[in-house]
Design goal:
Radius of gyration: 23 Å
CATH topology of the largest domain: Rossmann fold
Helix content: 25-40%
Number of domains: 2
Structural class: alpha/beta
Distance between the termini: 11 Å
Strand content: 15-25%
Number of strands: 17
Strand order of the largest sheet: 3-4-5-2-1-6-7-10-11
Largest sheet: 9 strands, mixed
CATH superfamily of the largest domain: Glycogen Phosphorylase B
């Protein structure tokens, strides 16, 4: 089966969040199952572009409204990612360092999707499935089915995976001319609440809709930034498939980012050595349990609650724990977290920014991972943490609820709380500190979570089964 993934991100080419991790892994596992899986994405000017060898596979031109543009498709020569990787270059639009955040993002991603449709139409043998990810590729099912120039593509099955429904890419009808000439009777397949909404369009037009966890799909029916009625209406073609993680990248036994590797049989020794390194680097107390937060410092992740949570934990529980925060995002949140340094007594520190090496070391060193997310479609951090023997302390929402079982339940191995509220989170920190004092229980949980299987093998098969249901 020939599968084409279309995405704005793909690790390690360009990654902003979990979308990049998924698109960087799922196609490789599908390829290992014997399918021809490939990824098509914009050609950003990232380091990956300059450190790999490429070949030009297609050059042509198309138009974005009245503006004609040339585009080039290049392919990575060595198959370094385990699947065919294609980048689309459009001078003046896609040739930038950042993935998002430009005033002309609408034009950038519209042109990208038009170029990909133009290129696929030139194929002698069309793909069996086109799998698009999030709103950046959300107009593609509409373009395939309802534009006159690309009728050749209209019978190819399409799947859209929603990694985060809060971001929908909506824009005004004044930019409708960007789309290739389309059947005006199909206006409703583009529109949602008076705008052109790429994510809504993908939900309407794709043959199947998937979300990255079962619980997140349920939540979207009452919490999807205005799309709630649409998810209810289209529920018959929606399903949840939990993300996996790549154990070739995330495994403390072989992780190249660690100076001290370890496995289940020597988890205590391995984690202690990595904790010594982290505590020395950040001036923390080795003898206290280490709580970490890794992620975007935004309200969606509950990061704005961290300063008060840390302050209240010190005040009400006592200075019995360390906190270490890694991430960047909202400047006010960054400032609030940095302000905690004034009260730190070898029990708090932070690193503002993105650091892949440090994140691996933190997972290996930490005792607990804190995820107070308001929204968490699947969550990968809790899966990474568990492979490293780090116990997740997470809110009952989305994929966190699907992948973590509270220690108070039979067979439990994590700590859950109900609300993204300071009191709930602080109580969970207290439970974690109490668990840390029970060394035998702690050791048992560490061994258990390191042995759980959240690999992509299961999830990749679910996607392939979904594709094959079309035939």
């Amino acid at each position: 089966m020939q599968i084409v993934h279309i995405s704005a991100e793909c690790y390690p080419v360009a990654k902003v969040g979990g979308l990049g991790d998924v698109v960087g892994s799922l196609p490789r596992f599908q390829s290992e199952m014997g399918h021809q899986s490939s990824v098509v994405m914009p050609m950003y000017r990232t380091n990956y572009l300059y450190t790999h060898d490429w070949e030009v596979v297609h050059k042509a031109s198309s138009n974005l409204g009245h503006w004609w543009f040339d585009y080039t498709v290049i392919k990575e020569k060595s198959n370094a990612q385990g699947f065919s990787l294609y980048l689309v270059d459009i001078n003046g639009l896609l040739d930038r360092e950042k993935v998002y955040g430009y005033e002309d993002d609408v034009e950038r991603f519209c042109a990208f999707q038009i170029a990909v449709a133009n290129w696929l139409s030139s194929w002698g043998s069309l793909p069996h499935v086109v799998h698009v990810h999030d709103h950046h590729a959300g107009l593609f099912p509409f373009i395939m089915q309802h534009t006159y120039a690309f009728k050749k593509l209209q019978h190819i099955p399409t799947v859209v995976t929603i990694h985060n429904a809060q971001y929908q890419g909506a824009f005004g009808w004044d930019k409708t001319m960007y789309l290739p000439h389309w059947d005006s009777w199909k206006r409703g397949m583009l529109e949602w609440q008076g705008t052109i909404n790429p994510l809504a369009s993908a939900i309407k037009c794709a043959w199947k809709v998937t979300t990255v966890s079962h619980s997140y799909l349920d939540e979207l029916k009452f919490m999807s930034n205005g799309l709630e009625p649409l998810f209810e209406f289209e529920k018959g073609k929606c399903m949840g498939i939990i993300n996996g993680i790549d154990y070739q990248v995330w495994d403390p036994a072989i992780d190249n980012y660690l100076t001290e590797n370890y496995a289940v049989n020597d988890v205590e020794k391995g984690k202690l050595r990595n904790k010594e390194i982290i505590c020395k680097q950040f001036g923390l107390d080795l003898n206290k349990p280490l709580f970490i937060f890794i992620g975007r410092l935004v309200g969606e992740k509950g990061a704005d609650l961290l300063p008060q949570v840390i302050h209240d934990s010190f005040q009400h529980i006592g200075r019995k724990m360390n906190f270490l925060v890694l991430g960047s995002g909202d400047k006010e949140v960054e400032s609030g977290i940095a302000s905690l340094k004034k009260i730190a007594k070898a029990d708090f520190n932070e690193y503002i920014g993105y650091n892949e090496n440090l994140s691996h070391l933190m997972y290996a060193a930490a005792d607990f991972l804190l995820m107070p997310s308001r929204v968490e479609p699947c969550g990968l951090n809790q899966l990474y943490a568990m492979k490293y023997g780090t116990i997740p302390v997470v809110r009952r929402t989305g994929g966190l609820k699907d992948t973590v079982v509270d220690i108070g339940e039979e067979g439990g191995y994590g700590i859950l709380f109900n609300h993204a509220a300071v009191g709930d989170i602080t109580q969970a920190v207290y439970r974690a500190v109490e668990t840390y004092q029970q060394k035998e229980t702690l050791h048992t949980i560490r061994k258990k979570i390191m042995s759980l299987d959240f690999s992509w093998n299961r999830s990749a098969k679910e996607y392939v089964d979904l594709y094959q249901s079309f035939y």
